[in-house]
Amino acid sequence: MQYSHSDAELIRQPIGYWSWAAYKAVVTRIRTALAEIGTNQPQWWVLAQVARADTVKTRDEVSRLLRNYLDTGPETMEAEIDATISQGWITEDAEGRLGITPEGRAFYDKAAALQDDLWAERHAGISDEEYLTTLKVLQRFIHNTGGRAWHH
User: Are 68 and 58 a contacting pair, CB within 8 Å?
Assistant: First the structure.
């Protein structure tokens, strides 16, 4: 890969631009790939939360957790939970508990395999150490600017 600038020039490049460009490239790639198999990113989040849960989660628990992902918001997450139910991938009982259907498990497995492939694609040529450093640096930028990430 050829970098955009020399090391001396890269040091002076704006983090705002490059973090935005990375976000846009990564999220666009994920969303395009998920659309090709018939879903979107928020529906994937819902399905993954239900499929991976050690204990049954309620609609409210899933919605509260996911509504801050990429500024999705509560209304959107509620609609995406409804869409995931309409797809037949999960069910909701009278108490709001969500469960995965056999169709949902099969689709989850397909989407999870895709996500694994996308992870490998994104991380090609990037060591775990470089990735860890990158995340720590980004979290430091968030901290230094008074920002808050979803996990705070």
Answer: no
Give pTM, 2 decimals: 0.88
What are the residues facing 99 on neighbouring strands? 91
What angle do the packed helices 74-86 and 59-66 form, to 10 degrees?
130
pLDDT in tens, the chain (152 residues): 888 998 899 999 999 999 999 999 999 999 999 999 999 999 999 999 999 999 999 999 999 888 888 778 889 999 999 999 999 999 999 999 999 999 999 999 999 999 999 999 999 999 999 999 999 999 999 999 998 876 54
Helices 41-52, 59-66: crossing angle, 10 deg rounding: 130
Residue at 49: amino acid letter: Q
Please state the φ and ψ torsions of residue 55, each to the nearest 5 degrees. -130, 160
Contacts of 48 (CB under 8 A, 6+ apart): 108, 111, 112
Are 68 and 128 contacting, i.e. CB atoms less than 8 angstroms apart? no
